[in-house]
Each structure stands twice: as structure tokens, then as C-alpha cells.
Design goal:
This protein is of the alpha/beta class. The protein has helices at residues 2-14, 24-36, 41-60, 73-87, 103-111, 143-154, 251-262, 291-295, 313-324, 334-338, 357-366, 375-386, 421-434, 439-457, 463-468, 470-476; strands at residues 65-69, 92-95, 125-131, 156-162, 184-188, 206-210, 220-222, 242-246, 268-272, 285-287, 300-305, 329-331, 351-353, 389-392, 398-400, 406-408. It has 16 helices and 16 strands.
Length: 478
Amino acid sequence: MATAIDSLRRAMGQMMRTEPVLGAPAMREAEAALMARGQSALDLMKQAGTAVAEFVWRMAAGRPVTILCGPGDNGGDGFIIADELVRRGLDLTVVAPLGTKSDTATAARRIYDGAIDSEWKKRPGGVFVDCLVGVGQTRELGDGLSQLLRSMHESHALAIAVDCPSGIDSDTGHLLGSCISYDLTVAIGAWKPAHFLMPAMARMGMLRLADIGIVADAAMRLAQRPRLHPPESGSHKYTRGLLAIVGGEMPGAGLLAAQAAMRSGAGYVKLFASHSHPDAPAELVIVEAPLDEALDDGRISALLVGPGLGRGEGATHRLRQALALARPCVIDADGLALLRPEMLQTRETQTILTPHEGELQVLGDRLSLPGTGAKHLRAQALAKASRSLVIAKGPDTVIASPDGEIIFCPPATSWLSTAGSGDVLAGMIASRLATGIDAVAAAEQGCALHAAAARLAGPAFTAGMLADRAADAWASLS
């Protein structure tokens, strides 16, 4: 009975709401599907505007609000927001310098019966709401509108972007000229790629979602917050997973990965070293036997190769030996620097690559992939070409699977930009993989543990401090 309950808990942990991430064409299709079921475009705009108005109302806290409305549907949202806020008694200024060009925006403008200014009179206020462009922008705003945004931003204490800040390509996260920074961005209906991609992500401020009933079976989604559970009753160290970390020339990185792995769920962690580690923790098993002998252990459930491996001829040989073993494998750091496409050709077991931006570029070049474009699309191309799961890490971490799925991780603290934090992340992911879950789940759970540990570690932590908080991070996600 206990085992059945444990299994049920694990299954329930996977039954979590998936939040799609939609590019502009997919968003239009999702809205069209809602309208095909009887809702009008104006109905959807009313839902969106009313939902966003609640966020503006809370942030304004009684202070004056200025709404900048563009000519399209984003501007229409602004008129609905204005109508709702006026009914709640806020001091409101609406500026619409370009009029309206869509039928729905024009209908929304008729709903709002307050004054509408065609020019900005530089009246200071509490909250500025940007409804100028939103989703679908692909060209620069031009000097006049850019200056208008900056002027309105400077005249207000706080700034809110509706759906997506003006001056940003919502499908790629690229800046289209200059772009101001916001305190809050409220996505309408579904998340957009730019919400989780640099450099746009740095301009968004807090992120919130206004639900209008969008349901989409999308190839892109937001990473789910995992629900981690204790080992099943009757578990022992091998059933929980034996992780083998293939070390090499530099002991520090391998030890960091091992310390994180030991606190992230695997029942047994071994470091296959090429030399002694006198400062290793007592609970970490160091194996100094020849690597072929060390790998000849049928109980190994997953491998991590790369942290501390080195980049010499001996390191390349150790990488090839590790990849020859038919076990799920995480390749990080030096392992990525040494990796060549032919090393993956015969692998049939799950492989996870964890490149940062520079490594993503290099790996793409080795596989003759386009070196430009949005990060999530480059990660997706690498995943398909290498037949591996790719975790393109950084302030904007993206997970891409060989079958085309793209998963965006929520932003984590910028204190993670410290030496060794990538080794800790690799240890966490490999530890989760060693427990027997699939590569996608291991990637999501490892990234979530990494972010949670950083949050718990506070400011200005070291990689060692980050690894030490892995068990606390686990507890926060259970």
C-alpha cells in the first residue's frame, strides 16, 4: 500500500497546469479559436482590459495614472483599462497620439467616454501604462514615439507595460532601438517568448499574466514548478540512483558538482578522479581506479562529465569513454569544449548538454547551424542536430528537446552570475537524472532547485554556499 501511495504522489506531481508560451502567430490562432466558440474580439478585449486594470489599480494605490494608447488592439486594451479605472474613481489621463486603426480598438475607444489627449502635456503622475504597441512589433518606433515613451516614463513614479513593452520584438526578445524599463509587465492571455529572453527580459520588471481563457497545445511552454517527493518506501542507495561524476585535471569543479548532487536526490554519488582529493567531504566516494574499470559498474544509473575534466588529450579520452557507456549522461563545461558531433552519433541513451551562450555558439558552429537568431530557436536547432536535450543556460535559461519542445525557465536571481554556479547546476540536473526520471523532468527540476537554492542563499554567495543550500531548496519544493 505504501508503495502505491508513493507512486500516486509522484503521478500527481506531474499533473500540473502547463502555461503555454505563444509567438504572435500562435497567439492570433488561439484568439481566433476563442472567437470561433462565440466570443467577439471586443469581448476578449474587455476581458483583457478589465484584468489588467486590476493590476494597475493595485499598483496605483490611489495615485494618478496616465495611459498611452496606440492605434491597434494594444491601444484598445488601454481604453478598456481607462474605462474601468475611471469607474473606480482614479485620476486618469489618456493619451492617443495616433488615433485608432483597428475596428476593435475603435469600438473600445467609444466605450471610454472620458477625455482623450492627442498630445502629451507632461503632466506628472503616479503610474504610466504603456499600451502603445504590444505584441507583433517588428520595426523601430522612430524618434518621436521613443522620445514620448521616455518623457512619460520620466514623469511617473512607476511604469507598467501591457502584454509586451513597446520597442521589443515579442517573438525574439530583441530590442527594436531604445527601450525603457518597466516595473511590471502584464501578459495578456499567454506568455510570449520575450518575457523570458534577454535582453528584453531585463526591461520587464515583475511579470504577471492576465487570463482570458486561452487554451493552446503549444510547442513552447513555461517550466513548471516541480513537486518533489521523498524516496519511495523501501528505497536504498542504488534504487535512488548512483551518479558517477567523471572528473579530471581540476578538482574544484568536480567537487562542487558532487556536493550539489549529493543534496539533490541521488542515493549515491561517486567521483571518478584522475588524482587524489584530500579535501573531499567524507561522504563522497572518490574512485581513483582507471576509468574503464570504474565505469564497469552495472549499478551506475547516470553520468556527469565535464566539470573539472580539463581540455588535454587525456580529458578527451575520458569523455569518449564516458559517452561509450549506455547510460543517461549530462555533458557540461570542459566536456562541451571537447565534444565533437561524431561522439554523439552512436549514443542511444538520453544526453543532456548544458551550454552557456558562448558554448551554444561554438556547438552550433561545429554542427553547421545558423549562428544568429533568437536564443530559444538556436537551442532548438542544436537539440535536433545533436539528438540531445539542450539547456541553454544564463539569465534567460531555455530547455530544448530533440522533438522540438521549448521550455522557458522563470527568471532567477542575478546573484547566480558567479564562478562555479554552472558546476552546481550540472550536479543538480545529473542527480535528478540518476533517480530514473526522463531528461526533460530532470532538466526542469534541476533548474528549479538551482533557482531555489540561490534564493535561499541570499546575496553575494559563493558556489560552495549555493551547493550547501540544495537540500533546503529541495524542502522548499516538496
